[in-house]
Amino acid sequence: MLRQAWRWSVFRNTTAGTIRSLAAAFLGADCPPRRSGGPTRSFEDIPNPLSVKSQRLLQPQPARYLSLSVFISMASGGDHPSSAHHKHTNRLAQERSPYLLQHAHNPVDWYPWGQEAFEKAKREDKPIFLSVGYSTCHWCHVMERECFEDKEIGKILSDNFVCIKLDREERPDVDKVYMTFVQATSGGGGWPMSVWLTPNLQPFIGGTYFPPRDQGRRPGFKTVLMRITEQWQYNRATLESSGQRIIDALKKGTTITANPGESPPLAPDVANRCFQQLAHSYEEEYGGFRDAPKFPSPVNLMFLMSYWSANRRTSEGVEALQMAMHTLRMMALGGIHDHVAQ
What we know:
Elements: H1 2-12, H2 15-28, H3 68-75, H4 98-101, E1 110-112, H5 115-124, E2 128-133, H6 138-148, H7 151-160, E3 162-167, H8 172-186, E4 193-197, E5 203-207, H9 221-234, H10 236-254, H11 267-281, H12 298-310, H13 315-333
Parallel strand pairs: 1-3, 2-3
Antiparallel strand pairs: 2-4, 4-5
InterPro entries: 6-hairpin_glycosidase_sf, Ssp411, Ssp411-like_TRX, Thioredoxin-like_sf
Domain Spermatogenesis-associated protein 20-like TRX: 89-250
Organism: Goodea atripinnis
């Protein structure tokens, strides 16, 4: 018996043993897809006429057909072992972002953030639907499963809007602009973020998560899309003017004053100021920045490493590297890593 236990221990510590153990665990679970049962994040009802994947388990099959690539795909959010079985493929399949790739097979005519989408919106005079999220966001996956994988909703989106999907970890600058608008207009924010823009990229309506269908007095995503489409056709001037008033108010509140003829600060000065801000908000015990909840921000860690590279002989440079490395170590100890491929 001890000999058998030892052999089993050795077997489980091998790569093949790990894979087969995982296969047995996954194939032995026969659970239906989870439904959204938690509270939805804020978006006020749109008055009329105007005011505004959880992952599915693979089907049971012999464990010998499951490879390491399948489990890596599952760990990163993928649902299918082969792209040949997808019924829909859009432009996001050519992107590198894990978040965008997760939406590459939605029945939505997605565009990445860029000139191609902007020019299409101007050419066809359509409003833009901008959806912002990131790969580890729970409610982003819920809205994908409930809304963006729905063929009826996908057709409404593709026919009436130019649909743009954005990874906030790739473009935190764009995310910040439109999140400021959403927070100012709805009183809250979060991801997924849903914003409707004019072809000139000016927001006029925004929110966060939407359920697919109406829930009591709360409009569902389909209802919101139909109302915005109607208002864009018959009451467009009011849409654009209300959005412009909000933008003007935000500009006044965020304007940076400068003396006439004053030159912009030098790059090293900007970098030093950025470092000081991160150092001030750094949390020494557990790493990261500011108080909990602390969402991982790759752009901050990449800046600290770049800052260290340019200032290796200074105490500030050493401190920048220490902050980045300690944060990464604490993330790894906390379990934020790929549990299959490490």
